[in-house]
Specification:
0% strand; Endonuclease III, domain 1; mainly alpha; 169 residues
Amino acid sequence: MTTYDQYKPDDSMDVINHWYRHTIWGNRIYDDNTLFEVMSLQVFQAGLTWQMILNKRDGFRIAFSNWDINAVAHMTRDDIEKLRNDPNIIRNRLKIQAVIENARTIQALQQDHGSFCSWFYDAILGDTYPDLMKNLKSKFKFMGPEISRMWLMASGRISQSEGHKYRPL
């Protein structure tokens, strides 16, 4: 799989948009940290534009240790306060805390299923948005219906046609 780091941008925004639209969106992800990143960016996007999130993607990568699940899971209250003062990311306390708690949940899933990707793609039963959303909402913080729907589509877990059946008006 091509990663974001393999692109050498002249215009970083074009590269990030290309990476997301052509490498990530709608495709199965095979790396736990990348799946965590896509999930976390969806959490941060709630109520904001996707372009705003992509504009801050490099800031998020720095702030959250390249989306290393173990590093994020070990973040402390002091780390949360530092992140709340970082202008390069979205500084919403609830979203930051949710991402850290979600990393801890992912660690448990990795222990039980070998990897986060194995759990996400192979262990969760169902292929429809309503069934899958119930599993996500019960396990993760800040995973409401719209965030779940977008993450499931972004990561190729459900098709766009399945996701669009439930598109909010």
